[in-house]
Amino acid sequence: MTISKYVLRIASRHPLYLLIYVGFVSLLGVLMIGTPADGGTSAGDATQPAAYRARVAVVDRDGSALSRALKTYLKETDTVIEIEDESYALQDALATEWVNAVIIVPEGFSEDLIRAARSGGELPDLEVAAGGDMQASALLGERARRWASLAAADAVLDRDASEDAVAEAVQSAAAETVSSEIVRTEGQEVGRGRVIAYLRFGSYTVTCSIAVVVGVVLTEFSEHEVRRRQLASPVSTWGHAAQVLAGCAVLTLLVCLWVFGVGIVAAGAESLLEAIPLQLLLAFAVLAAFALVPFSLAFLLAQLGFREEALNAIANLGAIVMSFLGGSWISLSLLGESVQAIARFSPTYWMSDAVAAVLEPTELTQEALTTAGVDIAIILLFAAACASAGFAIARARRTA
Question: Among 105, 202, 260, 278, which is 20 to 30 Å from 23 by CA?
C-alpha cells in the first residue's frame, strides 16, 4: 500500500490544482444555485409579482383608431415616451437607451390588418426597432404583435364591425389578464431541487478535478525514470498498477465526497440526511459512478503521453461540453431536438437523469430504481470504453 500512499502525496504536491478544481469550482456551483430561501412564505402571504415596464416609443404613421388603441394599450403595460418621428431622433433614443424599442405603425396598417384578417391573408407586421436591451425589445415586440392578433380575431368575429368597434373590442380583450402570485415553497421539496441542480453542475467540477489531478498523478508514474525503477522493484507490474489505481480511486472518492457535501450544505438540505438518507445515498452512488468516466479518461490521456498543459485544456473543454449536454447551464428542454439527441451520447445526460430519478420522487419506487440502474449502467459503459482503450495502449507500450 506504500505506492497508494505515494499517489496521495503526489496529488498534495499540486495544491493549486486542488484549490482551483476541487475547491473554487465546487464553490462556484453555490453561485449557480443561489442561496437557500429565507424562511419562505405560504401561499396566503405571497405577494403579487411586479410587472416589468419597458420604455417604448410608438411612431403612429397610420393615425387610425386601431393605432391609437395600440398606443393606449402600451401605455398601460409599459412606459410610452414621446419622440419626434425623425430618423436621427429615433436612432439617438435607441443608441442612448432612452427607450428599449421603437414600434412603428406604418401608414394603412389598420385597413391592411382588417382586410387580411377577413380574407384569410397574412397579417401586416409592425416594425420594431430594438435597443440595447434585447430582452425588453423582444417583450415589447411580442406585446404589440399579440395586440395585433387580438385585433384581427375581433375583426373576423364581427365582419360588419367598423374600425372603431374593432378597436373598442380589442381594448376589452387585451385588458383580460391571468392573475398570478408568488408562492415560496418550503421544506424538503426546495432542498431536493437545489441538490439536483448542484449535482448537475457537479459534473463539471468532478470532470475537471479528477481528469486533471488523477491525470497528473498517472503522468508522473508514466515517466521513463519511474518506469525503469518499477521494473527493477520486486513488485510485479500488475501489482504496481493495481496499487496506483487504488490510490487514484481513493483520491476520486474524496473528491466525490467533497462535491456532494458542498452540494448538501449549499442547498440548505441538511434535513434531508435524516428524511431521505437512502435516496441521498443513491444520488451519491450516481455521482461516484459518473466519476469513473473522468477517472478512466485521465488514465487514457496519461497512457497517450499528454502532459499537464494538455490535461488542463482537455479537461476544461470536455467538462464544459459534457456539463452543457447534461443540462447544467440550461435545461435541455429549451434546446432543439438535435441537441437533445446529441446529449444522449454524453455520460452527463444519464447522470443528470439518474440523479433526478432518485431524488425527485417523495419515495423510491421500482420505476425510479430501474431508471437509475439503467442510467448508471450506461455511465459505466462510457467509463469502460475509455479504460479499455487505456489498457490497450498500456499493454502495447509494455510489449514495444
Answer: 278
Q: Which long-range contacts (CB under 8 A, 24 or more apart) does 71-77 make?
A: 72/171, 73/143, 73/147, 73/171, 73/174, 74/103, 74/140, 74/143, 74/144, 76/175, 77/51, 77/53, 77/143
> Which residues on adjacent β-strands are paired with residue 104?
59, 127
Residue segments in the chain with a per-residue pLDDT below the cut of 70: 1-3, 6, 32-52, 173-190, 222-240, 334, 397-400
List Cα–Cα distances, 19 to 134, 138, 205, in angstroms.
38, 42, 12
C-alpha cell recorded at residue 25: 469550482
CA dihedral 258, 261, 265, 267 (to 10 degrees): 100
Parallel, antiparallel, or unpaired: how do β-strands 55-60 and 127-130 relate?
unpaired
Query: What one-character-per-residue DSSP string does 131-148 give?
Result: -S-HHHHHHHHHHHHHHH
How big is the chain, counted in residues? Answer: 400
Task: Report pLDDT for 38.
Answer: 40
Which cell is 157 given?
368575429
As a whole number of angstroms, the distance between CA 221 and CA 225 comes to: 9
C-alpha distance across the termini of the chain, in Å: 29
DSSP string, 170-192: HHHHHT-----------SHHHHH
- Domains belonging to the chain, first-starting first, are 2-39+185-399 (no CATH), 55-174 (3.40.1710)
Q: What is the pLDDT of residue 11?
A: 75
Question: How many Cβ atoms from other residues are within 10 Å of residue 285's Cβ?
Answer: 15
Smallest CA-to-CA distance from 306 within 240, 382, 216 is with 216
Q: Compute CA 118 distance to the chain's CA centroid, rounded to the nearest angstrom.
A: 44
The answer to whether 140 and 70 are in contact (CB under 8 A) is no
Instruction: State the pLDDT at residue 40.
Output: 39
Tell me, what's the pLDDT at 151?
A: 84
